[in-house]
# Entry
Amino acid sequence: MIHLDQLIATLMHVVIENAGTETGTLVLLEEDKLTVVAQCSGSRQCDLEKFAVADCETIPVSVIHSVERTQETLVFDDAVS
# Structure
């Protein structure tokens, strides 16, 4: 039996490792609202508590809304600067 939480955590850790980053956030469209469904770090810690993107303090909400509005892929070479 596949457990969705375990699958999401595993997926996030694979993506984080392959992207060469320290953290990652999974945002999904649920019931017409952008929802944070996972926030994970490379150290194997994964928070799977769901909440609205607008309430997230660790991601650039304006960038998320811009991508939602334009429906275009956005890639940063250096997301820090």
Remarks:
- The first strand starts at residue 23 and ends at 30.
- Helices lie at 4-19, 61-70.
- Residues 4-19 form the longest helix (16 residues).
- The chain has a mean pLDDT of 89.
